[in-house]
Design goal:
4 helices; 9 strands; 7-stranded mixed beta sheet; alpha/beta; globular; Rossmann fold
Length: 201
């Protein structure tokens, strides 16, 4: 799994891009983090014919391929465990930030391995219909931020609301932001995201 590392702050933010992007696609998200943060941008494992990468490639019916999701999640979890063991064990905060398909992966990681993260931020994301999205332990104490455009044509707002409800039900301190935009982070989302980061302490 390829990644770009920036900074040596006391807190860690891992950034996951969406379908067709790569690690450079998440560079803009680094601007929300101050000097006390180290950011790491990861590249998804599956190259696409038209360029860019994906965390999974949909099946013929459009649903996620469970095998590919499982492989990507296993790789992401292993990478996080190695990083924390090697150099970030004492990080004050460990936040995973994902956009769209990357947001789905971030949410799955938080559900399957909550011990690896202290916080989660999802933009235009969703929870894929795969076994990995099943039962999860309590996420009490975890900080979760979910932002979604009400006019998103690719991931309907209903999926963002369902994701928000899921993490609220698991006891996470969940901030949910809706904005009048499409499949991108709107100005309202950026302002709320920066405030959420500052609130982490």
């Amino acid at each position: 799994m390829t990644g770009l590392h920036e900074g040596r702050g006391a807190s860690l933010a891992v950034l996951l891009h969406g379908w067709g992007g790569d690690e450079t696609s998440m560079a803009v998200f680094e601007t929300a983090f101050g000097p006390g943060w180290r950011t790491v941008r990861l590249r998804a494992p599956y190259p696409l014919p038209g360029g860019g990468y994906a965390w999974w490639i949909p099946q013929a019916d459009g649903r996620p391929d469970p095998r590919m999701v499982q492989e990507s999640l296993r790789a992401l979890r292993g990478w996080m465990e190695e990083l924390l063991h090697r150099e970030a064990r004492g990080a004050s905060h460990r936040v995973v930030v994902g956009f769209s398909q990357g947001g789905a992966m971030a949410a799955l990681l938080a559900l399957q391995a909550p011990d690896l993260v202290t916080g989660l931020a999802v933009f235009s994301g969703f929870l894929p219909d795969v076994p990995e999205a099943g039962a999860a332990p309590s996420l009490a104490g975890k900080a979760v931020f979910i932002a979604h455009g009400r006019a998103d044509p690719l991931v309907p707002i209903a999926q963002g609301r369902a994701l928000c409800a899921r993490f609220q039900a698991l006891g996470a301190r969940t901030t949910c932001v809706e904005y009048p935009g499409g499949h991108k982070a709107g100005a309202e989302a950026w302002r709320a995201f920066r405030e959420w980061i500052r609130g982490l302490g």
